[in-house]
Structures are given as C-alpha cells and as structure tokens.
Amino acid sequence: MTDRRITMLQAVNEGMREALLGDDSVFVIGEDIGRHGGSFQATVNLQADFGARRVIDAPISEAAIVGLAVGAAMTGLRPIVDLMFADFMYLAMDQLANQAAKVRYMSDGQVEVPLVLRAAQGAGRSNAAQHSQVLHAMVANIPGLKVVLPATPEDAKGLLLTAVRDPNPVVFLEDKMEYGRKSDVPEGAYEIPFGAARIHRAGADVTVVATSSMVYVALDAAERLAGQGIEAEVVDPRTIVPLDMETILGSVRRTGRCVVLDEGPRSFGAGAEISARVAEEAFDALRAPVRRLGALDVPAPFNAALERSTIPGVDVVVAQIRELCS
C-alpha cells in the first residue's frame, strides 16, 4: 500500500468502495446516494460502478431505510446506511435502539446485525438546530451499539472497513466540517481496530482528550501553549464504544492533568463520562481536577457568529489549560 493525500470525503468513499469490492454481501442504501452522489458527495460514482442493486436510492423514510437494513443484516447481508445528518437518527430510533442494538443479545448470539450507520454531525455550517446536532453520547448510551468518531481521513477509511466487517451494529459519525481536510491515506484495504486511541501529539504537562473535530482545536491550542512553556499531549479516542481508557489513563498518569474536549453538549455528554472515569481511575495521579469543555446546552443557532460561540474554540482551550497548569 502507498500513501497519498486525500480528503476525508474521498477516504470515506474509498472505504465503501473497498468494502463493496471485497464482499458481495455489502450494499449501500440511503437518500440521493446514486446519481446525485449523496448530500455531501460521499457516495459519488459508487452506483455507476456497482449498480443500483448494491448502491440503492431509497425513499425519504429513515425508519424504513434503517428497518430494511436491520432485516437485511439479520439475514446475512452487510448494509451501509447513509443517513445524511446524524439528527435523522431520531426518525429511526426504534429500529436502531430496540432492534439493531438488541437482536444479538436477545437471540443469545444466534442472530447478528452487521450494520453500519453513517451520518454527518456537528455545527459550523449554519445548518441550524435540526441539522447540526452532535449525538454520539446519545447512541453511546444504547448497549449493543458501537460508536466511531474518525478525526482524520486515514482513520476514517480504516475504521469504516473495520465497521463493515464487525458482527455488531456500528454508528459511524463524521464531522461535516472536516470533509475537506486532507491527510496521507494508504491505497487499498486496511483496518484500524476499535478501542485503540491515537496520540496525535506528545506532551508532559497536560493530557487533552479530544474527539472528532475537536482534535484539531486541541492541536492548535497545544501549538500555542508550547510557545508559553506548556506541553500538551493530545489523545484521540477514535471510538467511544469501545473506549480505550488504558491509553487515556496512561497519558494522564504521565502528565498529572486532564482536559476533555468534546463538541457534544457539556452536560451528560461523552466528555462527562471520560472525565468521570479519569477521576475514578487515576485520582492518585491528578495534580488538579479534571476539566471538561463542551458545547453550550442550547440548540445550534442558525446565525454563524452565534453558532461559533456555542462551540469550544482555541482561545477557550488555551485559557483553561493555562489556568489548570498554573
């Protein structure tokens, strides 16, 4: 395999292409994913190359799409559902939470549901309150689902291929603001294991656990802090179910401080869960209380300036870490 720089969207498209090439039981289904190429162009050219029986344009009914996919997965197929926006999961919550997540458990492992549900989430595009929600904490709270949050194109492709080959239902959430970001991505098929965090930057003074697009906020803050004599270590969990607490705790024990940065609502979110586990399991190593930074507990505003004010930014992260390290 050779590496070349491609965007997150291209990496996701390649991941689906490799999955379709490698396994005849894989198919993709969603709204406008055929000739239109999907709402964000993630499925461009797939229907032309694999046909309308494997890349299926569905009616506008998320409940029907996910319900069909659950049934198909139970009978041995491996569907990839393109749900456009994460917000639309609410329209298929019975199928996702009561069927997909529970069938394997309720059948004592006799029936598997190898389903991948892809969706874009996050604020920053003025898509307003019904198309900008960050919902990974909600689905992480449903036993039976795995939850993936890729931050880089390389991770997106490898984690997507792992998701397709997993016997369990996987919710795969991409931040729409990162679709144009480029990085080196291997050609061909490869997998990245679930439950293996990635350390993007080493540091000795504070651990910043950052999810999805917040990885880049953390990295920008770390660069600024380095000029002020504070070295931040940036840890990206990549998956929150399963969650690699071993890597997170190892980092916290080295640095003695922890900030958790997540774009979901601050209250009752993924940041709160990670913070609680760090406080419980590495209390003896902490030199200061754990801090969690998240979005304000308000619907996403349509106005761009107001929207930006609801999301943790670099200035806020730098100020919080400086105070923590003082």
Strand-helix topology:
Elements (H helix, E strand, L loop, with lengths): L2 E5 H15 L3 E5 L15 H5 L4 E3 L4 H13 L3 E8 L7 H8 L2 H4 L9 E6 L14 H5 L5 E3 L4 H13 L4 E6 L6 E5 L11 E4 L4 E5 L3 H13 L5 E5 L2 E3 L3 H11 L2 E8 L4 H12 L9 E5 L8 H6 L4 H12 L1
Gist?
The protein contains twelve helices and 14 strands.
Write down the CATH topology of the largest domain.
Answer: Rossmann fold
Number of domains: 2
| Rg over alpha carbons | 19 Å
- What is the helix content? 25-40%
Unreliable runs = none
Number of strands: 14
Amount of beta strand: 15-25%
CATH superfamily of the largest domain: Thiamin diphosphate (ThDP)-binding fold, Pyr/PP domains
For the largest sheet, list the strands in their spatial order: 3-2-4-5-7-6-12
Q: Provide a count of the helices.
A: 12
Indicate the mean pLDDT.
94
In whole angstroms, the N-to-C terminal distance is 46 Å
CATH architecture of the largest domain: 3-Layer(aba) Sandwich
Question: What is the class of the largest domain in the CATH system?
Answer: Alpha Beta
Question: How would you spell out the order of helices and strands?
Answer: EHEHEHEHHEHEHEEEEHEEHEHEHH
Shape: globular
3D structure, described in words:
With 326 residues, the chain is α/β, with parallel strands linked by helices. The protein has two domains: 184 residues, Rossmann fold, CATH 3.40.50.970; 128 residues, Rossmann fold. It contains twelve helices and 14 strands. Strands 3-2-4-5-7-6-12 form a seven-stranded mixed beta sheet, with helices on both faces. Helix 10 links the parallel strand 13 and strand 14. Helix 3 packs parallel to helix 4, helix 8 packs across helix 12 and helix 9 crosses helix 10. 51% of the residues are buried. The mean pLDDT is 94.
